[in-house]
Amino acid sequence: MTEELIFMTSNAEKTGNVMPLLHQIRHALSQLIERQEQTTIDLRRLPLSASEEAQLEAFLGHGEVKADIQALGDTVLIESRYAGVWLEIHYNEDVEIMGKYVHICTCPPIIKSQPEDMVLSLSNIVSDIHSLSHQSSDETAKED
Amino acid sequence: MALPTLNKQLQASGISRRTFLKFCATTASLLALPQSAVADLATALGNARRPSVIWLPFQECTGCTEAILRSHAPTLESLIFDHISLDYQHTIMAAAGEQAEDARRAAMKAHKGQYLLLVDGSVPMGNPGYSTISGMSNVDMLRESAKDAAGIIAIGTCASFGGIPKANPNPTGAVAVSDIITDKPIVNISGCPPLPIAITAVLVHYLTFKRFPDLDALQRPLAFFGETIHDRCYRRPFFEQRKFAKSFDDEGAKNGWCLFELGCKGPETFNACATVKWNQGTSFPIESGHPCLGCSEPDFWDKGSFYQALGPWERYKSKPGKGAQKHAGKNS
Ligand code: SF4
Ligand code: SF4
What ipTM goes with this model? Predict the structure, then answer.
């Protein structure tokens, strides 16, 4: 995986970083197709003014997938109109942006179910089924 | 006594792995670590033992403690802070007097060489009796607690540089932690108060890499103190155009022009307020129309009026990163 670090600023100045960034995304997409190499671009790490950030997001647009994750604040994942190019925004509980990334990959890692969570899920599902079956047998006993 | 791993601790609190990964991604970003390091960071941090922390509040106003503890738990930013083993903090702990001191000594014994020491407030050297805890002077308590600590995090400008108690004429003979302890790794997270997220990020770095992050010449983490407020200020274009507010209610102030002539210390102040912001990310002082006071710098209280310009505009014009280089480059 490769990544570029890009800093975000809130000033209205033009930094001129949008075009180089778009070329980087294009290059990363061809790397993904040819070598299955994933890239993450951290949008906090290079100067981008608020208007340039909006310009970047407008260029990428929205594709077929939008996912909302609730994990101590929302995380929004949007596949752009270019398949394989994703925008990921992490918010905290105060809806403050904590991180913003462009992922060039088939599926951003955070959307996948995590092995540790699945292990816990398995024990939860076992105990929930157990309670349900007890509940049903109690009800059957009452009916009898 | 081995404390549980953070993984176990988080799981027991119902924090999902996905939430933890989100925390690791945003913290890596704050620490300027590459995103490719997130998976490794999550593994190392998750397997780290929940750290034992002893927090000594000395000659302070409790502003630092307030800033850190005010965030409602659990938050993404305070995820790690909520899961440390805070074994001593006499301002907030239920125990008091000898009982509290016993808890501190028990934690020091159980985690010898491994616990982290957090200190806020300066240490009075003029007369140790100016500030005591359970009859023990601050300097004695600091020396005793630092002896077996793995490292020390000085929280706030008072602990980092002496702060307001050290302001002229320094009636208590206040000094910084690093003036007393010279044989331990020390990180200064200055600010009056300091940014809570910088403390969390330093804890994460320490737990993951077993050392403190890269520091500037004043022992502050470069990821948060590598640039000035001015470097990241949204009013910067007005500064470059010499468009200044001359009073708090003139046209310039109403237009949101630069506060340099109203005494803004942003060009000489290293901190991350302009990007991290305050009050749940609402704003930072300059966004509210007030100049930066320079509170994360040594002796900020004694550098003349808060409302007097730093000097001629030409001295500060278009020199981004000037100060970053001034203080850059020291490793822990
Ligand atoms: S650094 Fe500021 S907020 Fe912290 S204790 Fe000192 S005076 Fe209070
Ligand atoms: S002098 Fe102060 S208000 Fe003006 S640009 Fe610099 S930091 Fe911002």
Answer: 0.82
